[in-house]
Design brief:
Layout (H helix, E strand, L loop, with lengths): L3 H9 L3 E4 L1 H5 L4 H8 L3 H12 L5 H12 L3 H10 L8 H10 L3 E9 H10 L7 E4 L1 E3 L5 E4 L10 H13 L4 E5 L2 H4 L7 E5 L6 H6 L3 E2 L3 H8 L2
Parallel strand pairs: 1-2, 1-6, 2-3, 6-7, 7-8
Antiparallel strand pairs: 4-5
Length: 226
């Protein structure tokens, strides 16, 4: 197991940094916001808490939550336009600094492609660097399920994305940053996991992560060390 000092060195010399999105890059949980928008907020928020704590499989929780919400295409688009995701303080500066250093930045999310791509646009991250779940709709715009072939639709999916990135781009050092159990379990294959508690603190992650931060300024300072 790498020491904290070794983890900091991995971060400073990383080829790629993968960020979780909900409650990490943005302040809210996208699926909870969608549920509130569709009038089933409380029931879905409780399911999210259980999923993020790792007590149920991610795919089971995603299926159950979407079965309750059943969002239409129109509702998803209206949510993005009326209540756009709020970036977490410091993330814009951190991503910009990583880009300046030639580090590839990816968004690896159990959230939804349409919302995550909106976030990527704000951070100058190409949409090709977004890995997220895709909602499916019928021709009339009604909810038709989600694409179960996407790796991030199930537990262990974020690790599969990182393995794919290492194989495709021959990255030597990949860092995963996130707030939840699905982020922590992506290391390995990630070479380093940084737990983030700036928006919500997940007890399990705070206790088990060797490197745990509550503000992105802490990572910016690490980059300035070199």
């Amino acid at each position: 197991m790498a020491s904290l000092m070794e983890m900091k060195e991995i971060f400073r010399s990383a080829d790629a940094v993968c960020f979780d999105v909900d409650s990490t890059v943005i302040r809210e949980e996208g699926i909870d916001e969608l549920a509130k928008f569709c009038g089933v907020g409380d029931a879905v928020a409780e399911m999210t808490r259980r999923a993020m704590g790792g007590s149920v499989t991610f795919k089971a929780a995603l299926t159950a939550r979407l079965g309750l919400i059943r969002p239409s295409y129109e509702q998803v688009q209206k949510l993005i336009s009326d209540n756009p995701p709020q970036l977490t303080p410091g993330i814009r500066e951190l991503v910009s600094r990583l880009h300046q250093r030639g580090v590839q930045v990816f968004l690896v999310s159990g959230g939804f492609q349409s919302i995550v791509e909106h976030v990527a646009l704000q951070l100058n991250i190409p949409t090709a660097n977004v890995f997220a779940n895709r909602l499916k709709f019928y021709f009339n715009g009604e909810y038709a399920g989600f694409d179960e072939t996407q790796p991030t639709s199930e537990s262990g999916g974020k690790g599969k994305v990182i393995t794919h990135l290492k194989e495709q781009f021959h990255f030597k050092k990949v860092v995963m940053i996130g707030d939840g159990a699905t982020d922590m379990e992506a290391c390995p294959p990630a070479d380093c996991f940084i737990g983030f508690g700036g928006n919500v603190i997940r007890k399990q992650v705070k206790e088990k992560a060797k490197w745990y931060i509550t503000h992105f300024d802490e990572l910016l300072k690490e980059l300035e060390e070199r």
